[in-house]
Specification:
The structure holds two protein chains of two kinds.
Chain A (H helix, E strand, L loop, with lengths): L7 H36 L3 H16 L2 H24 L8 E2 L2 E2 L14 H34 L2 H9 L4 H31 L11 H9 L15 H31 L5 H11 L1
Antiparallel strand pairs in A: 1-2
Chain B lengths: L1 H21 E6 L2 E2 L3 E3 L5 E2 L1 H12 L3 E6 L5 H6 L5 E2 L7 H4 L3 E2 L8 E6 L10 E5 L3 H8 L3 E5 L2 H9 L5 E5 H10 L4 E8 L7 E2 L4 H16 L2 H9 L7
Parallel strand pairs in B: 1-5, 1-6, 9-10, 9-11
Antiparallel strand pairs in B: 2-3, 3-4, 6-13, 7-13, 8-11, 8-12
Classes of the chains: A mainly alpha, B alpha/beta.
Chain lengths: 279, 239
Amino acid sequence: MACYLTTGKHSNFYVAFGTVLLLLAITAPAALLFGFGGAIAARSRFFPLAWFGKIYIAIVRGVPDIAFFLFFVIALDQAFEYLRHRWKCPDWLEPVRQGNDFVVCQAAKLPLSTSPQWMHEVYGFSLAVLTFAIVYGAFAANVLYGAMQAVPRAQLETAEAYGMSQRQTFWRILVPQMWVYALPGLTNLWMILIKATPLLFLLGVEDIVYWARELGGTATPRFTDYPHGDWRMWYFLALLVFYLGFTKLSEAVFARITERLSHGQATAAGEAQRKAAHA
Amino acid sequence: MKTLILSTAALALSASFALAQDMVRMGTEGAYPPWNFINDAGEVDGFERELGDELCKRAELTCEWVTNEWDSIIPNLVSGNYDVIIAGMSITAERDEVIDFTNNYTPPDPSAYVAMSEDADLDGGVVAAQVGTIQAGFIAESGATLVEFATPDETIAAVKNGEADAVLADKSFLAPIVEADGDLMFVGGDVPLGDGVGMGIRETDGELKAKFDAAIQSMKDDGTLNAMIAKWEVSSQFE
């Protein structure tokens, strides 16, 4: 049993846990950044920017995730390669689209077909992070947009009365206060993001669900030293424990953050904290 | 001097082109033993691994193996993420419209039904097949109800848990499974499908196709291909 659990195939499985955690660690801040940008754009008084923000939020939220992950990524990859193609091979005369084929010159390939496999994997992973960030950024943008609107108008008016500029009001009063309103929505997003990581396989990144299916599948004695029946249930049970444990941990962390952010806020939670401190 | 620099640059450029051309990325599924599978060490293994490595050696190409889900194996080829599909893919007219095939490296091979009992209803019952395979196409046109699965392994599991009455797949894939599992058995006769298995290559990649065609021919001629087919028991041999 111990030998079975330490085969090369299993190490790939263990590494995949790292891949998923790394993806979450990079994607979450990136999506938040996209969301913040989107929310600011949507609130902008400069019309084209406001339109851009609102269209980004509306379109990305409206397109099914699976369609986004299947087609958008291939399109994104082709767009990058096309730009590089125009830049690196201006003398190329043949069309880029030939029937079904998408053909760019060798120098424009991303990554170059001569580069080692790990470069391809890193590139695929980066595409995945970017796609996740764009998709979840749109949801985050909507949450943050709502949170910014939820900050009591009286707070902003007071800031203006003290002579703060628009920019100062935004960064010193609005942004610090909006987080507590944004947090429930962002918590939801984080939970959904954790569960969405199996979409990685659509992007060619081998994640834990892929390996669980591959390892748990029936192994006939001819092709392996460790034959077994259909063990997928046990592998998926392990994944279940992992995902539940991880979301439980996240909940605990978010509970603490909420408590901190409520401190001194003009909300019911903030009020309750104030009273508790007095008593 | 200037021309000298230019021609050196051109030379360097063509050299790097040649180099780039010689690196061929081989896309496979890695879930279809004995054709291709991931072995205990986590590497691609099987008939097509051995065959592909030999073909690359004969065609003097450097090859690298990548795995891709069966569902999106053709879109990723035409989009240029790898250069060859070598995944037990049968040559059919339908696929030939989208991509090109090399000459077949196995002869047309029978498919077969596997079920839990001798009297499974193959013509009117529920039959499982992997999505996007010739077997799935065949069932869809027969009277039976088709249920499709993303991986070959799941089609077997569907029969085992009663979701499907039978599964239709390449006989060479089913044989080791039936051998290892006492509950499963072949039912009905063999079903001849497809025009043999070949490598899928982009339609614009004629040069690569020619190289592999020549390599496959040379393996057919000296008998090594037949020996390899016999070793992995993937299909009948060439005459």
